[in-house]
Amino acid sequence: MNHSTITTPLNPRSGARVSRRVTYGARARRFHRALLEGCGNDVLLDGFDRLWTAGELARRWSGAATPDRDADAEHRALEEAALSRDPGKAATLLRRHILRTVDALTRLP
Hints:
This protein is mostly helical. The chain has one domain (22-106).
């Protein structure tokens, strides 16, 4: 990862955000994994890889349930905390980011 935040692709004609495609999902996975790689814990990274794959459908449902959510801003804040080497802030932001997804899923009918 080159420390640039991921963003939802834009429609080149209108400039509006388009649906989160597979490419965005792959970039999001790389971003989140890069946040954890500094720990050097292969067991944690293995767990992340398995859970990410298992949670892909849930993340898509969450995105559909919260169209106004600004995941890009959440990712930028996470990136800033990680690059500032502020583990407490990064952990708090990552937890909040994950729990927003959980909250969206638990509100689905």
